[in-house]
Structures are given as C-alpha cells and as structure tokens.
Design brief:
mainly beta, 7-stranded mixed sheet, 4-stranded antiparallel sheet
Length: 122
C-alpha cells in the first residue's frame, strides 16, 4: 500500500531554514506528481507546492512561498523534498506530502502522509 515517511520538521527561528523530506513507498514514485500541503493551527488545509512526475519539469508554488521555498524530488530515492528558506512565523504548520493521481500536478491528490510539524518562532 501507499506509505509516506515524513521527516525534517522542527523548531526554527524566523529567517531560518529547514528542509522537510518525504520517503514514499508502495507505488511507482517517479510516475506521479507530488505536492506539499500545510495546515496552520486552527486553520484549514492550504496547498503549498507541487511538482510533476517524471523529471519534475513542471513546478508550482503558492504566492506566499515563492522565492523562499523549493520543491524537488529524487526518483532514485523515492523521496520528495521541500527546502524552506527565510521562514516566517506564518509558515508554522503541519506539512503533509501528498501523492497526486497523475503525472500532472494539476490533478487531484489521492494519498497523504502523516505530516511533520514546522514551527517558526518570532
């Protein structure tokens, strides 16, 4: 079955950097687009970024993280990454990696990880 092992979350000061990772198994990782979704305390789910399947040539970000976050994938390691720089307190959230139902990141998400907590102190 589809499984994800997320890691790399933690506590960081405002302006700092953190990279979260998501090791995937149970499906042909390289074939599918992947995305990151976050949920801040007391708020709803917010899509953050996505990367297409294959070589990951198509990438998209929510406006609030553009220029600060970088999504990437290592198909040889079946791992998705989100490098986060210049972190702000409003980036505090549980970050979930998700599998998209096709090679294109614009399709719907069909599997979710357990999430990793990122906390940015001011």
């Amino acid at each position: 079955q589809v499984q994800f092992a997320e890691s790399g979350g933690g506590l960081v000061q405002s302006g700092g950097s953190l990279t979260v990772s998501c090791a995937a198994s149970g499906f042909t990782f390289s074939t599918y687009a992947m995305s990151w979704v976050r949920q801040a305390p007391g708020k709803g789910l917010e899509w953050v970024s996505a990367i297409s399947g294959g070589g990951g040539g198509s990438i998209s970000y929510i406006d609030s993280v553009k220029g600060r976050f970088t999504i990437s994938r290592d198909n040889a390691k079946n791992t998705l990454y989100l490098q986060m720089n210049s972190l702000k307190p409003e980036d505090t959230a549980v970050y979930y990696c998700t599998k998209v139902s096709s090679n294109s990141w614009s399709a719907g998400m069909d599997s979710w990880g357990q999430g990793t907590q990122v906390t940015v102190s001011s």
